[in-house]
Amino acid sequence: MAPVTNGRELFNEIVPAGELPTPGKTTVYDTSETIDFDTVPLNGGFLVKTLALSMDPLLLPSMRAPQKGQPMPPFPIGKPIMGVGIGVVLRSEHEGVEVGSHAYGALSHQEYSIVPTLKNPMQPVEIIKKNPKLSWTAQLGPTGLAGETAFCGWKEHSKAKKGETVFVSSGAGGVGSIVVQLAKKDGLKVIASAGTDAKVKFLKEIGADVAFNYKTTDTREVLAKEGPLDIYWDNVGGETFNAAIEATKMNARLIVSAAKSQANFNGTNQPIKVAGLFNARSLTMVGFNMFFLRYKHMAAFRGEYVPQVANGEFKYAEDIRHGLANAGEALLHALSGENVGKVSVIVAEE
Amino acid sequence: MAPVTNGRELFNEIVPAGELPTPGKTTVYDTSETIDFDTVPLNGGFLVKTLALSMDPLLLPSMRAPQKGQPMPPFPIGKPIMGVGIGVVLRSEHEGVEVGSHAYGALSHQEYSIVPTLKNPMQPVEIIKKNPKLSWTAQLGPTGLAGETAFCGWKEHSKAKKGETVFVSSGAGGVGSIVVQLAKKDGLKVIASAGTDAKVKFLKEIGADVAFNYKTTDTREVLAKEGPLDIYWDNVGGETFNAAIEATKMNARLIVSAAKSQANFNGTNQPIKVAGLFNARSLTMVGFNMFFLRYKHMAAFRGEYVPQVANGEFKYAEDIRHGLANAGEALLHALSGENVGKVSVIVAEE
């Protein structure tokens, strides 16, 4: 078979602190490379055709200048960026990986790529079965990294009790919308915020008891009326975090989710000003790194939660773009807050 | 018996945010009231002669303008302030409270006062036995509120494991010096900071592996060399907190102690700027309110820890003043950072 073009999204330029990526400048779409499926050396690995890529805010910290304590290593300039994706195996020299099976995990942003091994903990990739009731983009969203973040974080850290009150900021996002529904299943009163009226409408559809647009309604006023809070699930950081701390009950839990607040890492994350309340109210604030937490809850995630999503017990919205050439725009869209639901890019049909 | 003067320390004026109390202005010592031990109505309570009072930074928040979420209610203007103290019972109408027994708990800052009941959770007072090996001021310090704060906070929240590294700010204070020794007993490497060379010397005497004066040595440099940290015990807040967060390992615990950072409540507590690291490193930050936590650990505190203090297994320093008239100065001294060890006021000999 003749070589074919292997489109790649290359990391081109560091994103300055406080700024968002610029498509075509931060990353460039490159078509200069070709690949021959039959002859490309696999060196014991396997060749994957990328089907779908998740546009996660978590990609942004690795686009910033290198800094101590980054959640993931910085992307090397001139190389393809890497994120969570799904692909189909075209050729394999790897034990247990068959042609036609599906790989889920850390994939390069290129149309075709070689995964060297399933055993590198720094590039976790696993072989998964397609759930006939879920699309590939759903497997990147409500049952992918966003769902894992919501499920594992909630199970590990919420200590939720029936009748308690939770506030979820960015509640209509990929993570937040699942947290809202997990909280409702646990019998909590759910307050949720979002930045557009379309998202507020979606929040009501998925069962939030109180949903408001934080751009037109004062968060502190809503929390004063509908709180106080037993749990705050933070997807945004900044002044919303301070408002939530002020509205806590005794023994409240503040969960820093791996979403926007982490995206703002290295620059624009606004400080927590009311740390003094941690004593007065015996507060706990926890962050979690999904890279380490996911293994602990995967059995329950796959055995209990994923079937519930497949059976329609959870609602979710998707915001799908097509073509790897549009991945830069898609990521910016995910970071902009305009999206309703999880942003994914379909790179190819199977 | 003829009435005697009942000296009182009255709360006179709110302390502005960011300022420290001014003796003679914030509180005034008043001798206008007399009391007749034989005829003063007890209404079912008991009459206490105050022996010693603890000068806790925790008193300051109640001297500030009323604010939501204060650890303790604000002091009413014109009334005696209230803190932790020890007294001897002179007369009693209260079941189980005998003349000559000793009361420990929330006492008014006056030479003689009436405790209405042992059953008011908002004014916790209990009858204690004198430990022959411990002075009353020791029972207000290493085996009093400061010791309780260190012991209960450490047992509840440190999750300490042998070989881990802890940083204790304000390590020479009443709470910090006990935390340093509890951590050494648990087999940890202890880094501790203080603000004078005399305190640094004391830190070395009580076993800190690394002790430094944060005014003359850069905290970040010490932590870069001696860290990273599994645990940070925070007694100060502010930039030290940010430096400690930056120096954490994965899964580190940040314990906000009820000391100086709480004293700075309502004004000068500097913000936590590096909340983004909470995700990357799965950090936990906890505050605790002793008012609620102490009951959980009192059996171990009295049964195990207090005998160890009495047997000399813990070292402690005391900074003692005499006379209720000097309580205002003594509290300012405790807040100034000049003290080595716990500041107490001996109001009367038994």
UniProtKB/TrEMBL annotation, chains A, B:
Pfam families reported for this sequence: ADH_N_2, ADH_zinc_N
Identification of the protein by name: Enoyl reductase (ER) domain-containing protein
Signal peptide: none
Organism (species): Mycena metata
Any one GO molecular-function label of the UniProt entry: oxidoreductase activity, acting on the CH-CH group of donors, NAD or NADP as acceptor
Gene3D superfamilies recorded: Medium-chain alcohol dehydrogenases, catalytic domain (3.90.180.10), NAD(P)-binding Rossmann-like Domain (3.40.50.720)
Record keywords: Oxidoreductase
Domain of life per record: Eukaryota
Residues covered by the Enoyl reductase (ER) domain: 30-345
